[in-house]
């Protein structure tokens, strides 16, 4: 039996899956604007299925709530967090880094790209410079 | 409507084939309720991409009833001795009756506010409907609009609820296996005790609990505490319109 909050690697994977889901959902919302219900349903199949047990995602959502509070400037002392929440927030940081590495943001409009190999922004069309 | 009397044992009346059976259940202590919550099995799993949730409290309910039954009337024994004289008489009662008693003692649902008063800032009211005990005529009564008024939870209290309601264990491996939820009930009881301001519809020995915080914390039924605090921390339904135009 696995105590979900102690499995930081599983939590990180679940968070990455949540980010990927959100990414695909927002792309579908953008691409299916004006499409009929059938087309939207067909496009929804592009959302990757979840691979872990549901407890990982619920704990992941709890961590995202904590992060939202921190970003909003709602301060709480480290002693108010359980050790597993601190480990979870570190896993959340790693999940963000991995996701952002896979889907870099356009420096002009901020849109996250499908992958890091594109030559121009999928939204605003700005050309990306190659790293030397 | 009369108030729930918390101090006296509860009488659950079951009608079957024209006869009435009365099961008397002693006041259920916090420890007993905690044991019951520990026995509730709430799980979730992914099946074909869909989350399937399941909840089973029947075994825990049966145990709770059997441990708290203090009398049973309407039944007969082979030798004419009192029902309660036999060792382990509680488990000899018909299973359907024990299950019915178990259903009655956990029968609580969220109620809509009984008044049209606007919401007061800094305080939140939660309303419940609950079955408690039979009246003098043997009719099971549903008490409606039981009110619990709370202070508005602060950020720390919301975090504690969020943390404990997301705690779980996974059986058999992290992938495609069952999540067993640990349940936030113990935390909900703590939060209830911290936040409660007043109640309506409850009394002890004929005296309304009202705004006597100490008495509410000491006397309120633990299951009602959990149910009320759970409603307090659950999101209210948004007022959605089907009209897109």
Protein architecture, described:
The complex is a heterodimer of chains A (132) and B (245). Chain A has four helices and one strand; from the N terminus they run βαααα. By secondary structure, chain A is mainly alpha-helical. Chain A has one domain. Chain A is globular. Chain B is an alpha+beta fold and 245 residues long. Helix content of chain B is 30%, strand content 33%. In chain B, a hairpin with a 5-residue loop joins β8 (123-134) and β9 (140-151). The radius of gyration of chain B is 20 Å and the shape is globular. Classes of the chains: A mainly alpha (132), B alpha+beta (245). At the A-B interface, β1 and α3 of A face β4, α4, β10 and β11 of B. β1 of chain A pairs antiparallel with β10 (168-171) of chain B, so a sheet runs across the interface.
């Amino acid at each position: 039996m696995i105590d979900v909050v102690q499995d930081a690697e599983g939590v990180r994977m679940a968070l990455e899956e949540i980010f990927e889901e959100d990414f695909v959902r927002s792309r579908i919302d953008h691409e299916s604007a004006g499409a009929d219900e059938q087309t939207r349903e067909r496009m929804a199949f592009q959302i990757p299925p979840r691979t872990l047990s549901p407890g990982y995602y619920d704990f992941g959502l709890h961590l995202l709530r904590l992060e939202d509070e921190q970003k909003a400037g709602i301060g709480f002392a480290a002693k108010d967090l359980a050790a597993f929440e601190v480990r979870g927030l570190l896993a959340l940081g790693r999940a963000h880094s991995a996701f952002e590495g896979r889907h870099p943001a356009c420096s002009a409009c901020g849109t996250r790209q499908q992958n890091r190999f594109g030559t121009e922004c999928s939204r605003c069309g700005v050309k990306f410079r190659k790293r030397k | 409507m009369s108030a729930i009397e918390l101090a006296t044992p509860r009488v659950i009346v079951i009608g079957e084939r024209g006869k009435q059976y009365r099961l008397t259940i002693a006041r259920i202590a916090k420890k007993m309720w905690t044991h019951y919550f520990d026995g509730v099995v709430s799980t979730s799993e992914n099946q074909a991409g869909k989350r399937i949730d399941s909840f089973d409290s029947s075994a825990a309910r049966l145990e709770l009833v059997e441990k708290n039954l203090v009398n049973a009337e309407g039944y007969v024994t082979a030798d004419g001795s009192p029902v309660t004289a036999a060792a382990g008489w509680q488990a000899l009662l018909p299973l359907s009756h024990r299950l019915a008693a178990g259903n009655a003692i956990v029968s609580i649902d969220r109620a809509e506010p009984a008044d049209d008063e606007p919401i007061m800032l800094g305080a939140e009211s939660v309303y419940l409907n609950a079955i408690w005990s039979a009246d003098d005529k043997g009719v099971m009564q549903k008490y409606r609009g039981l009110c619990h008024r709370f202070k508005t939870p602060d950020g720390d209290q919301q975090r504690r609820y969020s943390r404990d309601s997301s705690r779980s264990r996974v059986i058999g491996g992290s992938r495609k296996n069952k999540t067993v939820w640990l349940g936030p009930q113990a935390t909900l009881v703590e939060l209830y005790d911290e936040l409660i301001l007043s109640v309506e519809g409850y009394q002890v020995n004929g005296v309304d609990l009202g705004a006597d915080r100490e008495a509410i914390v000491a006397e309120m039924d633990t299951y009602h505490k959990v149910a009320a605090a759970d409603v307090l921390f659950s999101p209210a339904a948004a007022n959605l319109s089907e009209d897109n135009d």
